């Protein structure tokens, strides 16, 4: 009776040793993530692609139409209008978030009183759910009772309907930047605090200006993080 138990324990130890080896250990860590992506991302993606090639009605069987749906969408002017506006929002938000993140991260990278409080306040927008953020700014931008229009009217300026066709897209861009700029701020701040100080001290001794130091040292060293931000925000 002891022989099978011994063989079982030896086989189990051998399996664990194999999984713990350098060759297979990385796959042991990656496989759960791949399974998660397969269930919650890849399957819905292929499901959508399948039904995009079918004319689906709830009470009838799905009818295969091939590329018909895509041809219909590509010929619709509204599709290209929506695509152009989406591209405008994407580019504007990413550029503005990177610029804001770089400027604010440079300011927060200095030592000053209350720096932890300021960093915490900068991080707050990321903690607000998108629905809560939308409700918050809808009250702020309300045409008559919104705080922003009240301030504008007190300054003697004409009130603006921020959700009108002329301003709605810019309002959405502002709300998006307000919520997601802290992500760029803290990624770049973490990168700045990890940069080697020797290079910056040498540049300071050589009399390099702040702009030259940023352009020649800080920005090139932070480019990998900038690319990660662009990838994640796209």
From TrEMBL:
First-listed, main subcellular location of the protein, grouped into a coarse class: membrane
One GO cellular component term of this record is:
plasma membrane
The membrane topology noted for this protein in its Swiss-Prot or TrEMBL record is: Multi-pass membrane protein
> Can you tell me where the transmembrane regions are?
29-53, 87-108, 120-140, 167-192, 213-232
User: Could you tell me the Gene Ontology terms of the biological process aspect for this record?
Assistant: transmembrane transport
**Annotated PROSITE patterns:** ABC_TM1
Compartment annotation: Cell membrane
ABC transmembrane type-1 domain residues are 83-234
Q: Does the keyword Ribosomal protein apply?
A: no
Going by the UniProt record, its keywords in alphabetical order are: Cell membrane, Membrane, Transmembrane, Transmembrane helix, Transport
| Annotated protein name in UniProt | ABC transmembrane type-1 domain-containing protein
Q: Which organism is it from?
A: marine sediment metagenome
